Amino acid sequence: MYGRDLLSIADLSPEELDRILQTALSLKRDGGGARLLAGKTLALIFEKPSLRTRVSFDVAMHELGGHAVYLSQSEVGLGQREPVADVARVLSRYVDVIAARTYLHQTLLDLARHAGVPVINALSDEEHPCQALADLLTVLERFGTLRGVRLAYVGDGFNVAASLAEAAALAAMSFAIASPAGYRLPDATLRFIERTAADSGGRIDVCATPAEAVRGADVVYTDVWTSMGQEDSYAERKEAFAGYTVTAELLALANPSAIFMHDLPAHRGDEVTEEVIEGAQSVVFDQAENRLHAQKAILALVAGDQAL
Q1: Phi then psi for 155, rounded to 5 degrees?
Q2: Euclidean distance between CA atoms 271 and 204, whole angstroms
Q3: How buried is residue 211: exposed, middle or buried, by Cβ count under 10 Å (0-12/13-18/19+)?
Q4: CATH of 129-288, one of 3.40.50.300, 3.40.50.1370, 3.90.1170.20, 3.40.50.2300
């Protein structure tokens, strides 16, 4: 994977997905990798602010022996103060890898097209591969396998759901999703995960109700109804997602050993109740920690010149 971009989970083969997860497990368990990126620099280009993404990438580079430089939209002005292509070509002369958190996926594609170093998608409007990798790492730690694990996603079929569905299909998981009309996974994503699941031995179920998706699940996952930049549509979305809150009653339809996941930040009382997110089945902070370990693996594999 050395020198490769990671813009989408769909960029990966099942073997590469497994390699990232196994590398993350190894780095987390052994605390190794302190010199894997010695002397290397990561540029963090953020059009959107973040807690987990920024800190986990910054700490990941530090723990791998490298250095991170944070660049906000006010400092760079992607596509406004300076063309994306120029930013990509200039940064490629300074740094060894770029992680970008953008509004538009096209911005990432343009960065990758013109950059001479690997570009990692730290979130776009279409994909959130780093989150999905941390999620699967969390599931793998809990169950010891991914194959056949049933993951139920309840909520908006946007970037987080798309990357999670793609990763689940590659890993031969059983993925069930329930979303209101108008908020379902894009057709292109559905076609990809259906093909991928058929090849891997996984399964995809598009369900009519949250109860149908959650019944018998090993993992119950939800996300915010209104993401950053969508605040003006909060009232409309709250009405559309009525009945999609993960409550204790809904979670009880899953397997007794099921875990609850949320990528955070959470809006308690909207997509999940306080009782569930603070309950014994919740692993949301394990999940948040695993952003660090998954991203250490990604960085080491795409930017490190030492064999892992």
Answers
A1: 140, -155
A2: 22
A3: middle
A4: 3.40.50.1370
Strands 174-178 and 150-154: parallel
CA distance 35 to 23: 15
Question: Would the pTM count as exceeding 0.85?
Answer: yes
Q: Render pLDDT for 65-84 as a digit per residue (tens, 0 to 9).
A: 999 999 988 888 787 788 99
What CATH number matches the domain at 9-128+291-303, 3.50.50.60, 3.40.50.10420, 3.40.50.1370, 3.20.20.80? 3.40.50.1370
Write out pLDDT tens, residues 222-267: 999 987 666 778 899 999 999 999 999 999 999 999 999 999 999 9
